[in-house]
């Protein structure tokens, strides 16, 4: 069976779900670019960043609403176990860095001299990413395990 006939057999619901999933990832990528540019450049992209977050949220709720009960349960399980494991890794990293983080000028060793003017913004972004990236990686890893078991 050719791929074009498989695409034609997909229901409108599946096509909407695919479109909303792709839009979610596009808006997440644009948000990351906007957030990074807002931290590093002398421009204010606050309202653009907020608009991208809202668009991403609407698309994410849109595709999640179109999932069947089994897939919703799989997402719950993946977020709970994978996200919890990722947050545990984040917590261990935070605890191991605590002596450096609480000392005066402790982050200076981690930030290149050229970026010292953005130190506060970079410290916030690094903490945010250190909390979110391992949780997201844990979720994806657990999701792959769940999908491979099917």
| Outline | flat
Task: Report the C-alpha radius of gyration, rounded.
Answer: 20 Å
Distance between the termini: 23 Å
Q: DSSP strand (E) fraction? A: under 5%
**Alpha-beta content class:** mainly alpha
Order of helices and strands: HHHHH
How many distinct helices? 5
Major beta sheet summary: none
Poorly predicted ranges (pLDDT <50, ≥5 residues)? none
Number of strands: 0
Notes on the protein architecture:
It is a single chain. This protein is an all-alpha fold and 150 residues long. The chain folds into 2 domains: 1-66; 68-150, no CATH class. The chain contains 5 helices and no strands. The chain has helices spanning 3-9, 12-40, 46-65, 69-102, 119-149. Helix 2 (12-40) runs antiparallel to helix 3 (46-65) and helix 4 packs antiparallel against helix 5. The radius of gyration is 20 Å and the shape is flat. The mean pLDDT is 82.
Structure characteristics:
150 residues; mainly alpha; 2 domains; 0% strand
Write the layout of secondary structure elements.
Blueprint: H1 3-9, H2 12-40, H3 46-65, H4 69-102, H5 119-149
Concise structural overview:
The protein is an all-alpha fold and 150 residues long.
């Amino acid at each position: 069976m050719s791929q074009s006939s498989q695409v034609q057999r997909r229901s409108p619901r599946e096509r909407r779900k695919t479109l909303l999933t792709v839009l979610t990832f596009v808006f997440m990528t644009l948000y990351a670019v906007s957030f990074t540019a807002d931290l590093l450049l002398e421009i204010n992209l606050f309202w653009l960043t907020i608009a991208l977050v809202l668009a991403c949220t609407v698309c994410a709720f849109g595709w999640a609403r179109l999932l069947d009960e089994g897939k919703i349960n799989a997402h719950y399980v993946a977020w709970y176990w994978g996200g919890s494991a990722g947050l545990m890794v984040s917590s261990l990293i935070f605890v191991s860095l605590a002596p450096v983080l609480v000392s005066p000028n402790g982050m200076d060793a981690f930030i290149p001299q050229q970026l010292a003017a953005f130190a506060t913004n970079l410290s916030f972004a690094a903490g945010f990413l250190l909390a979110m990236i391992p949780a997201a990686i844990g979720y994806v890893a657990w999701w792959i395990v769940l999908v491979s078991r099917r």
